[in-house]
Amino acid sequence: MFGKLTGLVIFGIGLWLRFDPAISEFIALHGGSDNFHIVCYLLIIAGAIMSFIGFLGCCGAWRLNQGMLIAFFIILIIVFCLQLACAVVAYTQQDFIRRYIDNSMYEAIQEYYAINPQYRDTFDRIQNEFQCCGVKSYRDWLYSSWNRDVVGHNELGIGHSSIGKVPKSCCNEEGLRDYPTNCGISFDKLELWTYEPFLNTKGCSDALYDSTYNNLNLAIAISVIVGIFQLIGMFLSMLLCCWINTKSHRKTSNF
């Protein structure tokens, strides 16, 4: 029963990662959709297999079917090895994932937001959904090509201006209430920090990373717990097989 429930949880996490529009669209824009989709489908398949294994083990134990128990044992070993490999990869690649998210977001803000509507729509959706602004903070928009049309705004580098606008999707509830039509895009009259009370101050990199890895860490923790139960299940299934085999030999010898 525990294996079936765990399988359903992992299955659900795979579906969430695959079909969440903010995450999947952002990954797709940066050419990482193939690998990302592979990971999602592996989680979905793993969850379905774990649910099937749990059902197979229950049936084998209930019917005292030696063949089903042996199949349960073999599949359990394979899934255990795959879970261990996936958990190790997910844990060791966290720094790489964070750097990838940071670099991709900086690139999107600095180069593509101003000229590519698809990037603009996706980034606005992320900022709205996670109530965040920029990569690390709203100040990242000062370095954006979208901001280079602001009078007095210098090119990137030392001496850049601290005056600049931000997208409307950066605005918090107070900003949208006080500036209902031009929040963010009209913040180019004074230094940007003076408008901070009207902006979401959390960076989107941390928000997106936390959202993704909170679910992946949950999957890793569940996999570790399930792994312990799988080892117990392997031992008990072989013990039950031996008992069934001994019982059948006794019946044969009695005849």
From TrEMBL:
This is Tetraspanin. SUPFAM superfamilies: Tetraspanin. InterPro entries: Tetraspanin/Peripherin, Tetraspanin_animals, Tetraspanin_EC2_sf. The chain crosses the membrane at residues 36-62, 69-91, 218-244. GO terms for cellular component: plasma membrane. Gene3D superfamilies: Tetraspanin. CDD domains: tetraspanin_LEL (cd03127). PANTHER family: RE08073P-RELATED (PTHR19282:SF551), TETRASPANIN (PTHR19282). Its main location: membrane.
